[in-house]
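Student: Please help interpret what follows.
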Amino acid sequence: MLTAMGLFLFIGNISAQKDIPLHQDTKGNGQESPSVDTVVTASYDDGTITIKSKDIIPVMEVDIRNRHGETIFSHAAPALPKSTTQITLPQDVDKEKFDIHVKYNGKTLEGIF
C-alpha cells in the first residue's frame, strides 16, 4: 500500500512540470508562424522555471515579465550543454501569467506560462 502511494506521489510530481514553448518571431523572415527553438528549452514547476541549453552559449539573457510587462526577474550568464539555470519566482506572484524572454546569439525567444 505504501509503495503504491509513494508511486502515485512521484507520478504526481512529474506531471506538474509544464514545458514552456519558446518561439522566435519570424514574421520578417517570410515565415507565417513563429518557429519553436530547440537549442534552449524551458519548463515551469511550482514556482520554479528551469532553462536548459543543448549548446554552449557565451551569454544568455533571461527576463521574466508579469502581465503588465514589468520585469520581475533578469539574469545573464553563460549556458553550457547539459547544465540548467533555475529561477524561483516569489510566492506572492506565483499565480499570475508571465512572459519569458530569452536572448542569445542575436535571437530573442518568447514564451508564456
About this structure: The chain has a mean pLDDT of 80. Helices lie at 2-15. The first helix runs from residue 2 to 15.
